[in-house]
Amino acid sequence: MHVYVTNYRVITVEIGKFLWFFDASINARLYTPRSVSQMGYSLSRDLLIFKTHYLEFSSSSINYMVKSKNGKDKVYEMINALLSLAELIRK
After folding, report:
1. How far apart are CA 31 and CA 90, in angstroms?
2. Among 67, 77, 63, 5, which Cα is nearest to 42's?
3. Which DSSP symbol is given to 82?
């Protein structure tokens, strides 16, 4: 899943794969900043040495855990972008 934050919307794109390399399905959803109810950060550790960082995102009844490929800093950058979008809409 990919999460994009624009000036007015949050866009999620899910790409399902068939045999690991063929695109089987693509689901894109747009969210208004007011519909985002929660966001956060999670850390998962496997075998004591492998760390996986996640962005937690929920809107209405849909909950996502998006794995970060670029570590904790990229998750915090996305959270800050979501917060700044929410602040922009409140003004």
Report:
1. 16
2. 67
3. H
Q: Any residues with CB less than 8 A from the CB of 52 and at least 6 apart, and which?
A: 43, 44, 45, 46, 67, 68
Domain boundaries, the chain: 2-90
> Letter for the amino acid at 48?
L
59 vs 45: CA distance, rounded Å: 26
How many Å is the maximal CA-CA distance in the chain?
A: 47
Q: For residue range 49-66, list pLDDT tens digits in order.
A: 888 888 888 887 788 888
What's the whole-model pTM score?
Answer: 0.68
pLDDT in tens, 6-51: 878 888 888 888 777 777 888 888 888 778 878 888 888 888 788 8
For residue 85, give Cα distances in angstroms to 29, 73, 91.
17, 18, 10
